[in-house]
Amino acid sequence: MQQILLAINAGSSSVKFQVFAAADASLERRVSGLLDGIGSQPRLIIRDGTGAVLVDKSFALATVASVEAAQEIVGDWLEAAQELIGGKLTAIGHRVVHGGADFTRPVLIDDAVLARIVALTPLAPLHQPKNLAPIRAWARRRPDLPQVACFDTAFHRGHGELADRFAIPDALYQEGIRRYGFHGLSYEYIAQRVPEVFPGLARGRIIVAHLGNGCSLCALKDGRSIDSTMGFTALDGIPMGTRPGALDPGIVLYLMREKGMDAAAIEHFLYHQCGLKGLSGISNDVRLLEASAEPSARLALDHFVYRITKEIGALAAVLGGIDALVFTAGIGENGTEMRRHIVTGSAWLGLTIDETANRTRQLDLSATATGPRVLMIPTDEELMIARHTRDVLAAR
Ligand code: AMP
Fold this sequence. Notes:
The protein is globular and about 55 Å long. A hairpin with a 2-residue loop joins strand 10 and strand 11 (224-228). The model has no long low-confidence stretch (mean pLDDT 96). The protein is of the alpha/beta class. It is 40% helix and 20% strand.
């Protein structure tokens, strides 16, 4: 029987979704959609498999006030579009940010699994509830449909102990305070995609730069993650749109003691008021910062590039060299200037960038025919979710 799979990737104020028809080993994309501006200016855009726009509709704030409400809008549309998507949905796969130490692969969701995902909420307080909302909404709407949880941490669970540890007492490590790493679905997709486009790199030492709203780097060896810049939570590593990346923990103590901030205030500060937005005082969006003449905008972008090049050096040390640097996600795929500055700052590793290839968004951006490659590969987290969902169902 042909499977019709819905892949859901729910963020803080948006839900990305795609429907795939699974036949044999192939997955055919039938529709892709984005409902963003949830809680502010909700707007739904749906495209067919060729990219043609099928729906572009704005909603009143009250109609789509939550990620849960967004599922009803999406669900109603999919029900009416059965002919287009190839029939009734047969399963749903979800991106779940935190899988803790135990979830090393995607799993079919049942009550026990759901309780374990809920229990991990303190480790990803802002993201996990947004991932749980669509799981619950669909369980109510279509209790007959199997749902699969695909964890952003799972791809990193093979990290060696040295990469997995903080320099803190063992009891805390055993309790689960370890470097989990995130953006795993994106990195897993890139790890599968690289050998398809560059077979010679299949066993290579690759650093992937996932630069979007959230940003991190991942060191891949033989297609497996061996280290990543993100740690216990999605706050660690390189700066992001509104998160600072790695921070001296003494700053948190200072905020508590001298500024009287409690945990909730610090959490809000670290997730929403730092990074490019905090440093520039203007925006979290690279496009706006690049267009701005304010010195603080330049400072924010320069600091972003500085921290990324520094961490590329660190991961190159972990890998013992580098065969390729791959850019992906919103800034990685579209930020021509950011790519140029990051590669220029990493020239000591033998990385080069061809300006024409960079501007015209080629796959291989390197300026030389030999030596380490600089690649731009669009990520596809929803396809990865669909692959996992298909495979979990097949293994049942
Ligand atoms: P994502 O989370 O992968 O959707 O990435 C979103 C981010 O990509 C936005 O916040 C922008 O900063 C960035 N972005 C999108 N388009 C561009 C562009 N043309 N140039 C630079 N950055 C971009």
